[in-house]
Amino acid sequence: MSETLSSQLSEVSTIELAQALVERLSISDRDWHRLKSNRKARAIEQSAVALVYLLKENPEEALPRLQQAVGWLDRSISAPPCPSHGNRH
């Protein structure tokens, strides 16, 4: 990492860095259909959100996100059907 970037990052709080990471790793509406079942992307997204909650000293909110991340990785959960498509019976 360059000295300039390192000095810029030192001026940003850890929570702000974690929140920026969440923004970077969140699945956008545009990419939702393509990535909704991507286990790695979903686990990363949930883990980043959990990190923010942990940094804000809110483990009660972090734990379900970490459990979801594990569920994506161990294949115990799957993506639900897209609610915007409705029931096509």
Question: Summed up, what is this model?
Answer:
With 89 residues, the protein is mainly α.
Molecular structure report:
- This protein is mainly α and 89 residues long.
- 63% of the residues lie in helices and 0% in strands.
- The chain has helices spanning 3-10, 14-25, 32-35, 39-55, 59-73.
- Helix 2 runs antiparallel to helix 4 (39-55) and helix 4 (39-55) runs antiparallel to helix 5.
- It is globular.
- The mean pLDDT is 90.
Strand composition percent: under 5%
Q: How many helices in DSSP terms?
A: 5
What can be said about the biggest beta sheet? Answer: none
Number of strands: 0
* Anisotropy-based shape: globular
Radius of gyration: 16 Å
- Residue runs with pLDDT of under 50 for 5 or more positions: none
First CA to last CA: what distance? 55 Å
Mean pLDDT: 90
Order of helices and strands: HHHHH
Proportion of helical residues: 55-70%
Secondary structure class reads: mainly alpha
For the structure shown, list the relevant keywords.
89 residues, mainly alpha
SSE order and pairing:
Blueprint: H1 3-10, H2 14-25, H3 32-35, H4 39-55, H5 59-73
Helix pairs in contact: 2-4, 4-5
